[in-house]
Amino acid sequence: MKLSVFGTGYVGLVSGACFAELGHEVICVDIDEEKIEGLRNGVMPIYEDGLKEIVDRNYANGNLKFTTLPAEGVTESDIIFIAVGTPSDNEGGADLSAVEAVVESIAENINDYKIVVDKSTVPVGTGDWVEEMIEEQKEADYEFDVVSCPEFLREGTAVDDTMNPDRVVIGTESEKAAEVMDELHQDFEAPILHTDRYSAEIIKYAANAFLATKISFINEIANICERTGGNVQEVAKGIGSDHRISDKFLRAGVGFGGACFPKDTKAIVSTAAEHGYDFKIVDSTVEVNEAQKKTLVNKLRQEMSDLEDKKIAVLGLSFKPNTDDMREAPSRTVVKQLLDDGAEVKAYDPVAMEEAEKIFGDSIEYSEDAYDAIDDTEAVILVTEWDEFQNLDLDRVKELLNNSLFIDGRNCYEPEKMKEQGFTYYSVGRKAIN
Ligand code: NAD
């Protein structure tokens, strides 16, 4: 089949590359010339395991093309995917300006029947709006259908998630479009769920809001454990072994971040408010998460009353391991709190250093590795649970630290072991060792 994908970010590039790998002809369109030029030369704009191999292979065999020309994407494809960003607007809703720009290009260049598939996360009713815009603006009288096909991939495992999805949601009332979409997804061993377009649009927000709520829930249980005794990991195991609950997304930590949960939770609260409904649970999920991101530095302040001119090591900057994405990363709150308190920050992340530099500039020091970051500092704050931070040589850490203070935002170490090693050790939802 002939497809185009507008937006070559995490969703667009990975989906486009995977469809090409399955034998379809895919044109990826982006307004970012540097990104497109890079992709033509084998430079990936994001870090995702296995992505480069697939992109290189399919670019070489001609299944995958890259362009900055929207007209090319529209005219040379039968199915047009919209996979551009939908960041938060000033009121917490979704900013649809990039979607609008793509839709205008489709209307301007429509040259045959097209299926317009929205993969971007957009508020319920956006499909109607897209349909009306194309209908009003189209410059040639061709038919088209608008389908909602939300994306559920996770950064860090995006290629695998795309190739092996839990389900594919196809939201449309057009039988013709549904048939084509079924055929397009026939190589995936995943159940296909057919819904109306509104339901498909809501499914995406409901899924993210639910998962985010699970995280905030266990973080609140952790906060209770810290005050009452009890170990949140044992509590999580105890409740997670109930199949109705499941043990996924029950890891207490420093809060959620990334390109999706923060904006999608705010957006569904905002959509609800626009329709006169106060979505209290998800509103609280957001509030709890904001507070959770601050708990690590609050623990540090408990031990060190004055952080002025103190050097603090921050391990892990990306919002989760195996990605360089720093959008809404909890590390941003941690670093800001430290700098506001006058501390000097030495940071290290295995892949997000370049992204971090764009955000923090020269306000922090960038280290060569974890040990270089820890050297000559007063305390370590572990923010992102990269594998290499879960197996640190603790003797060496102890030797390099001026003070033996270790704040573990992801429960990577066992309190008893840290006690034996002589650390003052704080984690999340477990007894502090001090
Ligand atoms: P991204 O920011 O990584 O990429 C978006 C891309 O769109 C950028 O390369 C940008 O240059 C391009 N773009 C902007 N305007 C354009 C235009 N008019 N024409 C062509 N390209 C244009 O975004 P992302 O993380 O891939 O997310 C895309 C959508 O998918 C969002 O709605 C997001 O909520 C949703 N989503 C993201 C994830 C994720 O894990 N990142 C998962 C599921 C769903």
UniProtKB/TrEMBL annotation:
EC number, UniProt record: 1.1.1.22
Q: What class of enzyme is it?
A: oxidoreductase
- A Pfam family that the UniProt record links to this protein: UDPG_MGDP_dh_N
What residues does NAD(+) bind to? D30, K35, T86, T121, E155, K263, R327
Residues at the active site: C260
Pathway note: Nucleotide-sugar biosynthesis; UDP-alpha-D-glucuronate biosynthesis; UDP-alpha-D-glucuronate from UDP-alpha-D-glucose: step 1/1
**Gene Ontology BP, a term:** UDP-glucuronate biosynthetic process
* Key words of the record: NAD, Oxidoreductase
**Family matches, as InterPro entries:** 6-PGluconate_DH-like_C_sf (IPR008927), NAD(P)-bd_dom_sf (IPR036291), UDP-Glc/GDP-Man (IPR017476), UDP-Glc/GDP-Man_DH_C (IPR014027), UDP-Glc/GDP-Man_DH_C_sf (IPR036220), UDP-Glc/GDP-Man_DH_dimer (IPR014026), UDP-Glc/GDP-Man_DH_N (IPR001732), UDPglc_DH_bac (IPR028357)
Specify the UDP-glucose/GDP-mannose dehydrogenase C-terminal domain's residue ranges.
313-415
Q: Name one GO molecular function term.
A: UDP-glucose 6-dehydrogenase activity
Q: Where does substrate bind?
A: F152, L153, R154, E155, K204, F249, L250, R251, A252, G253, G257, K320
Q: Is GTP-binding set as a keyword in this record?
A: no
Reaction equation(s) it catalyzes: UDP-alpha-D-glucose + 2 NAD(+) + H2O = UDP-alpha-D-glucuronate + 2 NADH + 3 H(+)
Q: Which family does it belong to?
A: Belongs to the UDP-glucose/GDP-mannose dehydrogenase family.
Record function comment: Catalyzes the conversion of UDP-glucose into UDP-glucuronate, one of the precursors of teichuronic acid.
The identity of this protein, by name, is UDP-glucose 6-dehydrogenase
